[in-house]
Write a structure and sequence with these properties.
This protein has 134 residues and is an all-alpha fold. The protein has one domain (2-130). 87% of the residues lie in helices and 0% in strands. The chain has helices at residues 2-20, 22-34, 36-56, 65-84, 86-97, 100-130.
């Protein structure tokens, strides 16, 4: 539940910031993707966070906590891909982030993920004990 609370704040704040400051975020993300150092740093952070989640929260049970496990594996794989293929990742991501509609979609999805993780983090014990994913 602690991890869900962290995810809640991170995703919600990022999504709201992106929605309220689209031009700024778009410019910064494009500069970050063009910067080799920024991209490698992002890959290393994704790798470290993903590996930490996989090591400490690799829980494969039929409840909402599986979502955090899946996010950990996704971050680990993302970090590996960025570090192995930085130029390809940069080119692909630059195409995506030049699209205003995609930025809006990412912002809304981030806000929704933040709200979902906030709900699960606050009520996680009740949800886990009461409802199981079938």
């Amino acid at each position: 539940m602690l991890i869900a609370k962290y995810f809640a704040l991170i995703y919600f704040t990022y999504g709201l910031g992106l929605l309220l400051n689209k031009k700024f975020y778009q410019k910064m993300i494009i500069e970050y993707l063009k910067s080799g150092a920024g991209l490698i740093l992002g890959g290393l952070l994704a790798l470290i966070i993903g590996l930490s989640l996989v090591i400490y929260h690799n829980i494969w049970e039929t409840s909402w906590v599986l979502i955090i496990t899946l996010f950990g594996w996704a971050a680990l794989i993302k970090g590996v891909i960025i570090l192995l293929f930085p130029e390809e990742v940069s080119k692909l991501a630059l195409k995506w982030y030049k699209n205003q509609k995609l930025i809006n979609l990412v912002a809304v999805l981030s806000i929704l993920l933040g709200l979902m993780f906030g709900y699960l983090g606050a009520l996680g014990t009740v949800i886990t004990d009461t409802f199981k994913i079938i």
